[in-house]
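Sanity check. The docking grid for adenosine-5'-triphosphate depends on where the pocket ends up, so I'm generating a full predicted complex first rather than guessing from homology. Inputs follow.
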Amino acid sequence: MLNVHQVSKNFGSFQALRSIDLEFANGVYGLLAPNGAGKTTLIKMLATLLFPSEGEITYNGENITAMDARYRNLLGYLPQQFGYYKNDSPQKYLTYIAALKGMSQAEASPRIAELLKLVALEDVAGKKMKKFSGGMIQRVGIAQAMLNDPKILILDEPTAGLDPKERVRFRNLLTSLARDRIVILSTHIVSDVEPIAGEVIMIKDQRILYKDTVDHLCRRIEGRVFETYVEHDEAETFRSRYLSLSEKQESSRLKIRFLHEGEAMPGWTPVMPNLEDLFIYTYRDGQEQEDKEPAK
Ligand SMILES: Nc1ncnc2c1ncn2[C@@H]1O[C@H](COP(=O)(O)OP(=O)(O)OP(=O)(O)O)[C@@H](O)[C@H]1O
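Predicted complex below; grid placement will be based on this.
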């Protein structure tokens, strides 16, 4: 069990995170927030690349900083951008990283073969990475993070630059990896976490706003999301009154999905909220979300 206890992080006089409490067991956790909210700062603290200004992070009750190399042996980390030589093959790159991690050749060889299979790169194991797609590179990244069979796998914005097919493959891979480890995935892309995260963590105003299942999170705005049709020349007025969540052109009119907190009007269809709706509502511009009410 990985626990964050009352952790704050300051950069000089700027406080990036304040009094964070979190608990992680096996499974996929989606750390979801807009850019700049503090996801990378939290992830770097979990990876011991940054240290809390206050509070502590423990693994099975032991402070991770004090555990030092023992903790890093349990950890797999894929940073936002990982360095590799374009002329290297996945095989060569993974052999190099395994050596850095102190693995013997005898230990590394079968593990690398196993991982290349797991991330479906065995056919291109000897090919130079310069010709690889974004998805293939990310899978090399996952393989290097998995070399030591970590109990905690941390991935910072791993789907940036992936096409939709690659995203699906990536999500499936993470689901299978999370069966017997903690997988923490940071992203600002809702669709990356909605289908796979056991729990979603949302950060706002330097604090943890939510840590809950997708279902429970969506229920927070149940009864407040509607769809209706609006003429084009009425759209501007409509948007100024209600929070537009998504819009779609349908024949000559606009189909608007929106959020309203009062009585419904005739012609509005109530719909089940999704995580994207909650994300837009939570991080809507210029308005403070006073969400102190308990989950329904
Ligand atoms: N070393 C630093 N010195 C000063 N401020 C920092 C430092 N690192 C991060 N910050 C600030 O802390 C806040 C959180 O940054 P962080 O990188 O954690 O956000 P993020 O949610 O991960 O966004 P992104 O996805 O863009 O990295 C930002 O306002 C950022 O400017």
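Relevant for the grid: Residues 286-296 have pLDDT under 50 and may be disordered.
Also worth noting: The pocket of adenosine-5'-triphosphate is lined by residues 11, 14, 16, 33, 35-41, 157 (CB under 6 Å).
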